[in-house]
Amino acid sequence: DLKKQFDSPPYSQTVELERQAEVRCHPPPGVPPPRVYWLRNGVPLETDTNLIVSSEGHLLVGQARLQDTANYTCVAENVAARRVSEPALLTVYGK
Asked: Any residues with CB less than 8 A from the CB of 60 and at least 6 apart, and which?
């Protein structure tokens, strides 16, 4: 079982170049608990040392880069179902 609504979907935000950012995602409750992963512009996100998914499923940006500007979508999935959030736009701007 996996509820349809995210407890708290990710929301769009703007971050200054080289600052930290956190795009939060609280997935819908489910049994078993869903696995959370992220899409970047519709493609599964390749994490790296600067883009990390926390144990809670939030997307952490260590130092925002201009190329990190994108639509990020939270996906929650278990054996029963797959739920996809609305995309959140992360905008990185220069100083």
From this structure: 20, 21, 22, 51, 52, 53, 54
Domain ranges (residues) in the chain: 13-93
- CATH H-level, domain 13-93: superfamily: Immunoglobulins (2.60.40.10)
3-state helix, strand, coil in the chain (%, to 5): 5, 45, 55
Per-residue pLDDT of the chain (95 residues; tens, 9 = 90+): 999 999 999 999 999 999 999 999 999 999 999 999 999 999 999 989 999 999 999 999 999 999 999 999 999 999 999 999 999 999 999 97
0.85 surpassed by pTM:
yes
